[in-house]
Amino acid sequence: MTRINSLKVRFLGNKVLQRQAWKVADQLGWETTYDAEYVALTKLQADVLVTSDGDLARAVSGVVRASPMERPTRPVGQLGRASKDQQILK
Fold it and tell me: Any idea where the domains of the chain sit in the sequence?
């Protein structure tokens, strides 16, 4: 337990996240907070939103830093077997 308590983890209250998500949704003209929850969490953590949804990345670019992510492709390993990286991506 001491080890867990020594970790630098920031817990966000559910109400804090919900309040921020509604602000984001209002700011972007969204009717729900589905995507806004991710944006709000990114904003509260002062982080970068990494998403494979290019439309979302563009939509939130004025609210948080966003980086579109494309699924990486790796060459197939020897003898036609997938490499460990490819197995993880599946």
Answer: 11-68
